[in-house]
Amino acid sequence: MSIAAAAAKQMREVPFDVDLSVVRKLAGVLPGPKPLSVNGVRVAASVRPHKVVIEGGGDTPITMPRVAFQIVYPDCTVMIDSGLDKGTHESFGGEEPYFPDEFAKLQRALDAARLIVLTHHHADHVAGVVTAPNFAELAAKTVITMDTADCMMNTPHRSHLKLNQDAIDQFIVVDYPKYHPVAPGVVLIRSPGHSTDSQMVYIALQSGREILHSVDSAWVLENILQVKGKAAPWVKEDVPAVMGQLRWLNGLHQNEKNVTILVTHDDALFNTLTQGGVLGRELVF
Fold first, then answer.
1. Which distant-in-sequence residues (6+ apart) come within 8 Å of 131 by Cβ?
2. pTM for the predicted model, two decimal places
3. Is the pLDDT of residue 83 over 90?
4. Would 172 be classed as within a structural domain?
């Protein structure tokens, strides 16, 4: 690669300045036992050509699940994202897989959770709360950032998910510059790029295992392993920021063997992690 080409490539990346040692320290600042485990649930899926999921891919179809995660403590649970109802799923058009029984389980888990964290405003992450019949009850224990609040009011992912200020006032709204410990063992990491309000989630378990939920910086683990971004023409990202995040996640994968990376839309990874016992596939209520 020429010097000019290398320089041009670097200009396409904004370094993701996250210090894992600081995140680890912050995971211990809130009182209480750390979580025991993490469960995941697939409530729907999209099927996309590989060439859309990752730059340079082929025509092979890739199943991309829509997943929410549950952090399990000895005496309670915390939900990370809330999935989406069937109506919101269908608003994307086409006939794609939807799993109503799994969404019903997710609804029960949301009702039972002590806390819900929404990582960003996209429909498959927030609609389970926003469209819920008991919205007020769920919103009262749901953490969103000021950036997510702004997106929900002014640039909602689907028009029917648009909220007014009165609705936003029912959430727990936080603002932080870089890191935010939100529960024992759990730290939010500000990561705008996929959307202006995106966050990652670090989870330290009692067992010593660490989990880094990369949310939608990557759609599949392959994005991270190859440090290649998405190629979907409808996705409007801050590409240099996302590429910097993929580079950081790639380094994490290579150098931090105790850290398991979650990727929301990677069906094969979900199966590997559940079959290996790293991730549970049954929610608890």
1. 84, 85, 87, 88, 160, 161
2. 0.95
3. yes
4. yes
